[in-house]
Amino acid sequence: MSTASLVVTTNSEAETVRLATRLAEVLRDGDTVGLQGDLGVGKTVLAKALAARLGVEEPVTSPTFGLVMEYRRSEHSRLCHLDMYRLENAEQALAFGVEECLFAPDAITLVEWPERIEPLLQPALRKGDEKLLYIIMEHGGGDRRRIVLPEHWAKRFAEFACINQTGIY
Amino acid sequence: MLILGIESSCDETAAAVVRDGSEVLSNVVSSQIALHADYGGVVPELAAREHSRNVGPVVERALRQSGTAAGDLDAVAVTSRPGLIPCLLVGLNYGKGMALAGGLPLLAVNHFTAHVYSCLLEHPDVLRQSENFPLLALVVSGGHTSLLLVEADGRAEVVGRTIDDAAGEAFDKGAKILGLGYPGGPLIERAAAGGDGEKFRFPRGLTGGGGKPVRPEDRFNFSFSGVKTALLYRVRELAEPPTGEQLSDLAASYQEAIVEVLARKTLAAAQKYRVPTVLVSGGVACNRALRERLQASVEAPDRRLLLASPTYCTDNAAMVAGIAFHDLRHGLLAGLATDAAARLETRLKPVSFAPHFRGNRAPVGAPPYLLPLPAG
Question: Region A113-119: what's the mean pLDDT?
Answer without folding.
Answer: 94
